[in-house]
Structure prediction request, 176 residues.
Amino acid sequence: MKKLPNYLSVSRILLALTLFVIRPLSTPFYIVYVLCGISDMLDGFIARKFHAESNLGARLDSIADFVMLVVLLIVLYPVINPSVAILLWIVLIGVLRFSSIIVAKRKYGKAAMLHTLANKLTGLALFLFPLFLSFIPKTLVMILICLLASLSAIEELAVHLTSAQLNLDKKSIFTK
Prediction:
């Protein structure tokens, strides 16, 4: 049971990669997509419940989240056809995220992505994004998600810059 959370994170990586061969927004797409979401929710829950938290598990979860995000950006790009401004904004968010990883690597000796509340909210918004496409204008959804992602990326960078030690589960810059 102690390794189950890590297996779930690895399964999310593999499931996310299968989205490359499934037609976007089709029934099989949504099935795999929801399975990815379920594995994302369960890995942390199970790890905490069975005291199976580990640095490896936290890293696998972050890697799985990142793989899912990249796959979705690539697969959904033709469907959402974002404007140049949105694309530049996404690149800026990526630069902030990458800068945060570099700061963590230099400061703590290891690359790290935090599990802040803002990062979790961003992950939830990104997860719900394809579902929103059917009833909210896609440009509005993209702007709102980019806003949230920007704030969470800035917060994560600020946490790394101001913290004396690495705490992957820091909830916010406003908490100890």
About this structure: Residues 82-176 form one domain. Residues 22 and 29 are 6 Å apart (CA to CA). The chain is about 75% helix and 0% strand. The longest helix spans residues 55-80.
